[in-house]
């Protein structure tokens, strides 16, 4: 996608300096910073500290981390050490483990002398595949938006609601939940997007920043406003992303997604999830019981980062001194509340049968 007319991915390989570069998302939407990721500790910090965030982007970043590990020491022992070191950074998003497993499976049979080059090539492939997956999700989601637009009076926008940031900043490019929006905007379909702020990290501000750069009309709202908008017929469809989806279609996403799904269900609003296939965890069935939920630093709740009226970026405390903060980062939306899953292979029911029909190869491999 573009920022002020210049195309960017959320990460890219600097072939001149032989280093991965990323957009450091801790400072967005107020400051645009690009930093190198040059050491294994840098990779771990980038993932854990949310310099990169979003399940697909975390997976791609981890693949480049494995490439660095192989460039430093291509032994089996170091490969396993790098897998363990990176895997523990974020426990919920399945793409992290998926990318690490894919790298280790591809590299283990190779002679040590060939592993460094092969690992870097594989990391490039994983990044490029993510871009194509998200582009195709956008095309399949566009068909749903077209159907809604066809039923509306001429010129009236399709009103979408999204939660967190499942945009190109959360992937390598295009995004998941935002990809249909960008495709619809480019196709000339009138849109308006309600953007949840998504406390405590306010990732909705990243979505608003993205949409603004692409010219998509949008409004930034509090997390608790979505139900009210649905009650008053102001939302035509909800689209969110996902960090892990079970084989039966339960969806684990940023905290607050479950409440949006409940409100959508109560008001007859279609609730769709944009789902890249690497985010399906075929080993898990019951999302509420089986998916580990990351508990992050309480300071993310008790403090907020932002710009002062004087234009200075800083952090302020919003909770009373001494108040304990709780910070579960994700929740699980049961499949019964999900209207459909928008994947790179098409749209399916949120069910084991629906996913298996679209991905019989993956389903069989997981048996």
From TrEMBL:
Substrate binds at residues 53-55, 90, 203, 253-254. The gene is mtnA. InterPro entries: IF-2B-related (IPR000649), IF-M1Pi (IPR005251), IF_2B-like_C (IPR042529), Initiation_fac_2B_a/b/d (IPR011559), M1Pi_N (IPR027363), NagB/RpiA_transferase-like (IPR037171). The record marks 164 as: Transition state stabilizer. It is an enzyme of class 5 (isomerase). GO terms for molecular function: S-methyl-5-thioribose-1-phosphate isomerase activity. Belongs to the EIF-2B alpha/beta/delta subunits family. MtnA subfamily. This is Methylthioribose-1-phosphate isomerase. Catalyzes the interconversion of methylthioribose-1-phosphate (MTR-1-P) into methylthioribulose-1-phosphate (MTRu-1-P). Also catalyzes the interconversion of 5-deoxyribose 1-phosphate and 5-deoxyribulose 1-phosphate. Part of a bifunctional DHAP-shunt salvage pathway for SAM by-products. GO terms for biological process: L-methionine salvage from methylthioadenosine. It holds the Pfam family IF-2B. Pathway: Amino-acid biosynthesis; L-methionine biosynthesis via salvage pathway; L-methionine from S-methyl-5-thio-alpha-D-ribose 1-phosphate: step 1/6. It comes from Roseobacter litoralis (strain ATCC 49566 / DSM 6996 / JCM 21268 / NBRC 15278 / OCh 149). The active site is at residue 243. It comes from the Bacteria.
């Amino acid at each position: 996608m573009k920022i002020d007319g210049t195309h960017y991915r959320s990460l890219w390989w600097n072939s001149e300096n032989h280093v991965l570069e990323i957009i450091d998302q801790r400072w967005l939407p107020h400051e645009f910073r690009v930093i190198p990721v040059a050491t294994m500790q840098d990779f771990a910090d980038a993932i854990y500290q949310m310099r990169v965030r979003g399940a697909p982007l975390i997976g791609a970043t981890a693949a480049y981390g494995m490439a660095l590990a192989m460039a430093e020491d291509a032994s089996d022992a170091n490969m396993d050490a790098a897998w363990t070191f990176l895997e523990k950074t974020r426990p919920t998003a399945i793409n992290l483990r998926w990318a690490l497993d894919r790298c280790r499976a591809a590299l283990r049979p190779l002679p040590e002398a060939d592993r460094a080059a092969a690992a870097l090539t594989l990391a490039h492939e994983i990044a490029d595949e993510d871009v194509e997956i998200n582009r195709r999700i956008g095309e399949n989601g566009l068909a749903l938006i077209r159907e809604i637009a066809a039923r509306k009076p001429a010129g009236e926008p399709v009103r979408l609601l999204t939660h967190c940031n499942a945009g190109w900043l959360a992937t390598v490019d295009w995004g998941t939940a935002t990809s249909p929006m960008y495709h619809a905007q480019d196709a000339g379909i009138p849109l308006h997007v309600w953007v949840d702020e998504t406390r405590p990290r306010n990732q909705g501000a990243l979505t608003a920043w993205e949409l603004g750069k692409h010219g998509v009309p949008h409004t930034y709202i509090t997390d608790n406003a979505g139900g009210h908008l649905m009650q008053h017929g102001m939302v035509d469809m909800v689209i969110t992303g996902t960090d892990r989806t079970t084989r039966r279609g339960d969806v684990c996403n940023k905290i607050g997604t479950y409440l949006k799904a409940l409100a959508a269900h109560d008001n007859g609003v279609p609730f769709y999830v944009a789902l890249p296939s690497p985010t399906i965890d075929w080993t898990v069935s019951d999302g509420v019981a089986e998916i580990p939920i990351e508990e992050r630093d309480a300071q993310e709740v008790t403090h907020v980062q932002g710009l002062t009226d004087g234009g200075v970026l800083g952090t302020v405390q919003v909770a009373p001194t001494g108040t304990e903060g709780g910070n579960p980062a994700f929740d699980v939306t049961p499949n019964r509340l999900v209207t459909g899953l928008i994947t790179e292979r098409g749209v399916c029911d949120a069910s084991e049968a629906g996913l298996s029909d679209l991905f019989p190869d993956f389903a069989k491999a997981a048996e």
